[in-house]
Write a sequence for this structure.
């Protein structure tokens, strides 16, 4: 139960479309979404394959709770081998696309090969066909979405597509659905572009998710909704200010990375915060994804009439403090551009910040910029200009489109890229939030915060308050958070529910939807299995323990001012304990005993 029971397999090379039975037994081991798709990718491709070659595969996957009224039950995942890290790429998106796709009667799409010319997949209930996309190739996300929606003859068709960033194979290109929701990180949009696949269009679907115990599921959902509404973060903070509720909170504790992590507090935070977005009356209304009671999305209109989504906390930071920019209009506009060009805004803004430091230190020469503005911290003009330059690989934007690590490496200074496994790390300085630093370093998809959000206990005190600058016990917290997040992703829910819900809540939702006779330990074992299969993929791809680390700046350069003054990340005291708790050897390789325990061959 809770699964539609069918997988679409689309070979773009020979244009064949097949329907396969959903692997029910495998689903019980990996649940769905991120978990099951990662296992299928691990089984079906050589981990050493070139990410942008036809031999790579691209998987869209829903979970058992997608298309249910479980809080935030509309998420889907995109899984592939990513060009940014060279390891497993795994991106989560909200909106309505995931639920609409599952309503067509499928749980997953596996794309193989490469189309000879631009194409898009059209799904209308059980009718599936590949269509020519030559007329929308080269167009931005907004225009593509409008054209393909009109062609579908269904006014409420949902479109997931790439923009110029994906077509031009930027290593951090995203897949955007409904114009504003992004499967953002790890470069999944570039893999889609490499296959000449412009979009997936879901016109209509008539199916509902079958539940094992619908009455008990309904009662559980009611309890969950009450908990979410009564929680200070999900019931008050996020609805009021969106994710930018965090700006002043993180800045005050001295963990707000500024000017490419050279500083850890931004002197202009008040001017670019979530509060400022409301006070300046740029915020028009809140927006919500499918079945979401939180509504953290922000519809924003700027003084010149430009309208778009956000900026969210990470986008606002990447183009704001990270680049030293205090212009909220320019930051918002850059966020709009990321959606329309099809970029991961974290990587885009962080790459510009890296370029700014390279320029200010004299490694990038002024003549390389051509007609472009100087890459100086604080330049509103620069963040707008170089976002477009990256999307179309114009001038120095060609180098920047490959990401911060490769950009800095090309100038002989990779240490100036604030990346883990070549992916740009987000808006929390691990010299202050030590557990988050370990989470960054050990993340299977590179520098990222959503796979173990240690900000919950280290800053917000959820489920209990931890001392952010202490290391003791953090390895255990990171391990548990990684596994519960794997469950949330595999189920088809949003990580924001974890501010109010815990493992028992997720267990009850999954049991009543699927009928799985699990206890909490068994459920978390599924999360552990997902984490280990991702690790095995990365090891096979050549990503070993040497990449479980942080930039030298964060390990060896102590914070100069503010609450975190004198701090560096003490990763060496946490990593060995983490490996031991995971059942991995000193080289970060899962032991035979651990794999046997998890049933992984």
């Amino acid at each position: 139960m809770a699964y539609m029971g069918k997988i679409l397999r689309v070979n773009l090379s020979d244009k064949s479309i097949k329907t396969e039975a959903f692997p029910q037994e495998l689903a019980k081991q990996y649940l769905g979404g991120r978990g099951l798709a990662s296992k299928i990718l691990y089984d079906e491709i050589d981990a050493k394959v070139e990410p942008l070659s036809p031999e790579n595969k691209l998987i869209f996957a829903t979970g058992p709770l997608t298309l249910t009224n479980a809080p935030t039950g509309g998420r889907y995942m995109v899984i592939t081998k990513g060009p940014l890290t060279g390891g497993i790429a795994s991106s989560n998106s909200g909106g309505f696309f995931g639920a609409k796709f599952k309503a067509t009667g499928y749980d997953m799409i596996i794309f193989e090969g490469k189309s000879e010319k631009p194409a898009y997949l059209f799904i209308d209930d059980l009718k599936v066909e590949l269509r020519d996309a030559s007329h929308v190739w080269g167009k931005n996300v907004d225009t593509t979405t409008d054209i393909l929606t009109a062609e579908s003859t269904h006014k409420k068709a949902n479109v997931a597509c790439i923009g110029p960033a994906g077509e031009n194979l930027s290593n951090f290109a995203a897949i955007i659905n409904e114009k504003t929701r992004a499967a953002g990180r790890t470069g999944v949009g570039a893999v889609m572009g490499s296959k000449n696949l412009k979009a997936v269009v879901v016109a209509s679907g008539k199916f509902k998710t079958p539940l094992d115990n619908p009455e008990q599921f309904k009662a559980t959902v009611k309890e969950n909704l009450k908990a979410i509404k009564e929680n200070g973060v999900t019931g008050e903070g996020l609805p009021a200010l969106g994710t930018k509720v965090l700006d002043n909170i993180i800045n005050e504790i001295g963990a707000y990375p500024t000017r490419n992590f050279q500083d850890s507090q931004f002197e202009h935070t008040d001017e670019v915060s979530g509060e400022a977005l409301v006070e300046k009356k740029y915020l028009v209304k809140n927006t919500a994804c499918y079945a979401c009671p939180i509504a953290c999305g922000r519809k924003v209109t700027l003084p010149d009439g430009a309208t778009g989504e956000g900026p969210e906390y990470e986008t606002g930071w990447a183009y704001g403090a990270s680049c030293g920019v205090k212009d909220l209009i320019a930051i918002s506009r850059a966020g709009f551009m990321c959606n329309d060009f099809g970029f991961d805004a974290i990587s885009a803004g962080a790459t510009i910040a890296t370029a700014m430091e390279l320029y200010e230190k004299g490694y990038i020469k002024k003549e390389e910029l051509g007609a472009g503005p100087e890459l100086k911290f604080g330049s509103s003009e620069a963040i707008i200009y170089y976002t477009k330059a990256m999307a179309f690989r114009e001038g120095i934007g060609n180098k920047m489109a490959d990401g911060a690590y490769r950009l800095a490496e090309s100038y002989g200074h990779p240490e100036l890229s604030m990346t883990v496994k070549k992916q740009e790390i987000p808006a929390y300085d691990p010299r202050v939030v030590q557990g988050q630093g370990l989470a960054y370093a050990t993340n299977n998809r590179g520098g990222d915060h959503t796979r173990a959000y240690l900000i919950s206990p280290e800053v917000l005190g959820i489920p209990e308050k931890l001392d952010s600058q202490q290391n003791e016990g953090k390895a255990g917290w990171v391990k548990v958070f990684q596994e519960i997040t794997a469950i949330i992703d595999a189920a088809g829910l949003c990580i924001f529910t974890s501010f109010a819900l815990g493992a028992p809540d997720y267990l009850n939702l999954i049991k009543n939807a699927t009928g799985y006779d699990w206890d909490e330990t068994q459920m978390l074992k599924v999360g552990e299995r997902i984490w280990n299969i991702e690790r095995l993929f990365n090891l096979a791809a050549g990503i070993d323990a040497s990449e479980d680390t942080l930039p030298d700046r964060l390990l060896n350069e102590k914070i100069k001012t503010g609450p975190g003054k004198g701090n560096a990340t003490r990763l060496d005291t946490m990593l060995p304990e983490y490996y031991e708790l995971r059942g991995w050897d000193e080289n970060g390789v899962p032991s035979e005993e651990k794999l046997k325990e998890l049933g992984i061959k």
